[in-house]
Amino acid sequence: MQYDPSDLKPRERYKVLTSFVLPRPIAWVTSIGPTGVVNAAPFSFFNVFCEDPPLCMFAANLRPDGRVKDTVINIRRTGEFVVNMTDEPLARAMHESSGDFPPDIGEPDYLDLKLAPSTKIAAPRLADAPFSMECKTWKEIDVNGDRLLVMGEGIHFHIRDELWDRAAMRVHMDRYHPVGRMFADRYCRTDDRVVFPPAEGAKTAV
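Now predict its structure.
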């Protein structure tokens, strides 16, 4: 089966891409509004792309009624945000935060999510997140006027203590239970894992 993307409507392209490019990590982005309201919104068109500098990127489209999302408004005003990762205990709250909230109602306050101050930026982080990355906007890319690609430079990391082996610089995978986005209202757990031996590369005769 084949498709030429130009033969599909945008919604149909979205369905194809999100049906097969999965599971996708979720950026649960916290930002702060002009009156101090803290916004928390999940974005699954997201990943990290570089370590020097540490860059991440997420895509924010317009709301169905054409309004710009609060996250984008806040980031464009302040140039900063926090990417919080989600694990199983936080998954339901993360999903609920994807609903429609007016700008004067912050998702963390409404959903009883604990906040903690960031170290280098004004936007707070989610206190119970397994990993949070304070970000400054590195670059914005407008896509067709209805979607914004936000690239952030990570300027400070927060890691839940029990998840990290500082000496080995390695995560305790038996303690970290992230969730991934599938499509629509479907998510996946990541505890069913496979370990392969090191790849040997091409074998050549001596």
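The domain at 5-188 is CATH 2.30.110.10 (Pnp Oxidase; Chain A).
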